[in-house]
Amino acid sequence: MKKNRKPYFSVPAAAYEGPQSRNPLAFRHYNPQESFDGKTLEEHMRFSIAYWHAFRGTGADPFGPGPIVRPWEAGRDPVSVAKVRMDAAFEFFTKIRAPFWAFHDRDIAPEGKTLAESNRNLAAIVAHAKQLQKATGVKLLWGTANLFSNPRYMCGASTNPDAHVFAYAAAQVKKAMEATVELGGENYVFWGGREGYQTLLNTNLKREQDHLAAFLHMAVDYAKEIGFKGQFLIEPKPKEPTKHQYDFDVASGIAFLRTYGLEKHFKFNIETNHATLAGHSFQHEIEVAASAKALGSIDANAGDLLLGWDTDQFNTDVKELTLAMVSILKAGGLGSGGFNFDAKLRRESIDAEDLFIAHIGGMDAYALAFKTARTILKEGKFEQFVADRYASFDSGYGKEIEKKKVGFAELEKLVLGKLGEPKPRSGKQEYLENLLNTYLH
Ligand code: XUL
Ligand code: CO
Fold first, then answer.
1. What are the backbone angles phi and psi of residue 119, rounded to the nearest 5°?
2. Which protein residues are within 6 Å of ligand 1, measured from CB?
3. Mind listing the pLDDT tens digit for each residue in 268-289?
4. Given a cut of 90, is residue 1 above it in pLDDT?
5. Are 228 and 188 in contact (CB under 8 A)?
6. Considering only CA atoms, which residue is closest to atom 5 of ligand 1?
7. Antiparallel, parallel or unpaired: β 196-197 and 244-245
8. How far is CA 91 from the centre of its chain?
9. In the predicted model, what is the mean pLDDT of residues 312-316?
């Protein structure tokens, strides 16, 4: 980053002004240095900026090219443009006060004509990123490889019917893992956008899943070889671009990992919009991952429930986020994960300041949700309600059921004898929904 040059963004660094502020470029709830339970909000939230959306997104859709044009994209040599773009990106990360960023290999460096050329491009940009990280203190939340854009991956990467493509993907992930290590990445993500099928007429499902598992085992082995100590994360998504993706949701991901003996090495990167595409709530996916002690990180965004595809919007729904934060805090937080804004501007939001406004809104909504969730958990009303609801399993025959000390015959005897007919008890959903609103308004 050259000193004394004109900034890439005329927008000032985002400041915390408090809940009364109406300044769209200031935080109302996210005060990074505010302390909670001995940790700053910045340390609790671990916000991250997704390079692909913030710096490669143009608003393009299947019906036309993108109207979002940034001035630093004008140069001719793609590697030089990639460096200037990255300078602009780190200015943004700093001004928006995000301590982390995340990337795909091909977002940050242009793909060459051969793998060797792509690797050279990547190495040059990783060296540049390393300098920028050092200069700004911004860290890498996770790296990943783009195994879905290039036509070679049209029928999948590790699940491609052609072993040649599998080998190419392995070579690409090897370099992306090395880049992640070089930049001190705390996690490495696998999102299998094309790891699935369009039709079973041409697909050997079992063989493809075996190949996906073999690929992930190779990644585990290679991590040991290069000393990658970070966390591997699977990012489930049910569909899009592929009709059926193997990592459909967290539950199918857990089954897959356990089937292939991979569960020790992977956690989940849960994306809100992927959850809703799978027919689940965001909170459901968090709870399923937490129940398997596999909650890793969050791709923070939102979908549009009226649409059937991944709209990757900035999430400002404080109610949804509060419920999610309650589950995350109950699970003990995200560890080495964070909240990565896998979210893009609407096609029509073409101003550079829109990028700031969007992230500020997302960060503020999450910060407010964090604070509200903390209050909810401190007061403990919901937890007490749930604990009471299951209290019959805390003692007597209920406890013996949980400890597997009784069977059908003993239970039959009890019901035919002193227990008789169970007395129904209200689930009190409306009471609980109203109680939740008392924290939100
Ligand atoms: C696609 C998606 C990806 C992953 C990383 O839906 O979420 O950007 O987060 O490959
Ligand atoms: Co994502």
1. -65, -40
2. 52, 104, 144, 189, 191, 193, 235, 237, 271, 299, 310, 342
3. 999 999 999 999 999 999 999 9
4. no
5. yes
6. 191
7. antiparallel
8. 23
9. 98
